[in-house]
Amino acid sequence: MLMTPPVDDRVIAFDRHQSREIASATLASVRHQRPIDTADAPREGDDFTSVGVRARELLDAKYANSRKAGTRIVFSLDVSGQLLKLPDLTDQELAAIVLNRDKTFTPDEQSTARCEFTERERIALEPFNDAVMHHGDRRGDAIAINYIYSCMTPEVREATRWTPEMISSNNEMLDGDIKRLGPIEEDSVLQALLATARSGRSFNLSPLRQRLFTYGPTAATTRHH
Question: For residues 92-123, b (16+ Cβ closer than 10 Å) or e, as one string?
Answer without folding.
Answer: bbbbbbbbbeeebbbebbbbbbbbbbebbbeb
